[in-house]
Amino acid sequence: xxxxxxxxxxxxxxxxxxxxxxxxxxxxxxxxxxxxxxxxxxxxxxxxxxxxxxxxxxxxxxxxxxxxxxxxxxxxxxxxxxxxxxxxxxxxxxxxxxxxxxxxxxxxxxxxxxxxxxxxxxxxxxxxxxxxxxxxxxxxxxxxxxxxxxxxxxxxxxxxxxxxxxxxxxxxxxxxxxxxxxxxxxxxxxxxxxxxxxxxxxxxxxxxxxxxxxxxxxxxxxxxxxxxxxxxxxxxxxxxxxxxxxxxxxxxxxxxxxxxxxxxxxxxxxxxxxxxxxxxxxxxxxxxxxxxxxxxxxxxxxxxxxxxxxxxxxxxxxxxxxxxxxxxxxxxxxxxxxxxxxxxxxxxxxxxxxxxxxxxxxxxxxxxxxxxxxxxxxxxxxxxxxxxxxxxxxxxxxxxxxxxxxxxxxxxxxxxxxxxxxxxxxxxxxxxxxxxxxxxxxxxxxxxxxxxxxxxxxxxxxxxxxxxxxxxxxxxxxxxxxxxxxxxxxxxxxxxxxxxxxxxxxxxxxxxxxxxxxxxxxxxxxxxxxxxxxxxxxxxxxxxxxxxxxxxxxxxxxxxxxxxxxxxxxxxxxxxxxxxxxxxxxxxxxxxxxxxxxxxxxxxxxxxxxxxxxxxxxxxxxxxxxxxxxxxxxxxxxxxxxxxxxxxxxxxxxxxxxxxxxxxxxxxxxxxxxxxxxxxxxxxxxxxxxxxxxxxxxxxxxxxxxxxxxxxxxxxxxxxxxxxxxxxxxxxxxxxxxxxxxxxxxxxxxxxxxxxxxxxxxxxxxxxxxxxxxxxxxxxxxxxxxxxxxxxxxxxxxxxxxxxxxxx
Length: 808
Known about the structure:
The protein is α+β, with helices and mostly antiparallel strands.
């Protein structure tokens, strides 16, 4: 990573900041503060240090691992195996570098080393761990206990029972309809030849005078030098590489030969895969193809079926309870899948992005109907100063209020209040005792308030702006209230602190618990996520280099269960001024994904908080034209989007948008979109939809920009939403209904929906079952949603197919 520009602090005064500097002079926001003035932006250079600190292994652990290499070179298998086991036991919670940008936990790193051991050493390892692994495996299968099977993988991945555990966990996931998890387990059963190898290392091996001719031919036949690999593998390599030829089908036997060759020459695997499974590859690949069909990735399934039919035309196995020829049966299933109705989207919108994966697609919209109820007045505007928007020619993402839909409830919040309305009527959800005189000082619909929350009396400067979001789960509402400052210098102006609350929505918003951080150095970063009795939230610890953490609390008692350090790096405040950040988590089936906006993206186990991997990305602090902030600094609410095994990330401290393999953290592509992408809306039509002043269609698998619109005007005005197979994109006076595939198809078929003439203009969008909500700076507008939907004749078809898919 390179440093691209230089941080300048003018006498420690934040008015020299080139983005998002908030000057507070007192007063209270509408329900959260109105005395907000925004500093002008001086034409200065800004630099964020490239240094990112992780919880890495120490020199003692590295010395042990170096001894392992010596033991393997001397064929001292016993010493090599025992040393690796000791390193796992003693340093398992640390991370270690796989490349300059990718780190994994020590357990996985050691499993990788074991998987690359020569057969005699691997046999010795299995002899030692197989009894324990077998016991865990048999208990897991007998009791249908995924936890026991996962323990086989966590502790004894390369044991004789490791591939059986992967197979069984894949079957369990398929039964539960979790096709992404099933794919992840089965994919680890396939060892793959290295895709790209640094040129210097490849040529040293290839040109070795002692290399047998048949092995030299193998390398020359399947690898080609690529001078432009940096642009494609933008984080993994810093020079030319030799890439595997993907224009030809790689036979399984040839792939196995390449895997064996590179292991013998000491090239460590880049991904963890089970070494030498006894399960037939035809069976494994058939299941991967089945996952593509059932999850609805039909374009991918067609390509996989074409390859499968050539590689395994006669392979047989069990499908739908009977023995079949895989290629024929899967072709029939794929043809049937083309006619399955799309799954009906839930009407609830329970957190930012609609779901814990931040990738929910709302029910479709054909047109806006009449106004459902009069606009709800939220009080004074909850936005940044309009002068800031004009100066930068676009509205920052999340300028406006955000809303949640839970059943018939419409919920909004700010710094000190939570409001609840009846979504059908627009009136307060719980009007209270009619015999009592209404309190005119409180906003309508208020179910929680904190009158002690005040703006700072002294004029101070801050980096960032307040954002307010919540999460609903299991009849409860979770929100981060109070001060939104998350990093403070040693001499801070803010005496207020943020805190988490949990309200019982079944009891008219009764407060169940309220928790504050341990001390003044700790802050909650935003609304938490909830799963399995746990509340997960991002936290930040104030320091010259802010520290990013993830914490887990008990949903009933609010007791801290664990808190894990992820990374630390320099923030835009440079340790001199207060910062406001809103780093939200992403959650999918036991794995937490965290875009820290501090130079790293990480995956953590939801069970115990252990970091599974961490990937660093190039940081950028360069200001834009005429000293203005680069658009990426305006990505305030930007959690990872999880989509079918991919993580899609747009950090605020980097100009890149990129995709990572969610299982390994490996970079898949990076896209340097020159225009002002400030938020990611989701994935549809095989495209990542991104927007700012413009809207972009980016191929989700390759990172190429498929389309963008418009060239100049109109400009985006608020956060859009994916609905059905369309994108709803608001501008100041219109709502554009665009195709998720490209803009030309969109503009040819749909006219924009006018938002003027009493409709309040653009804002953040949320769709409920029968409503479209537009949340503007200080009002909520609701319109009847005309969908044109037809009642599905065959709901649950994919789930039914999954239940009867592969027999044992």
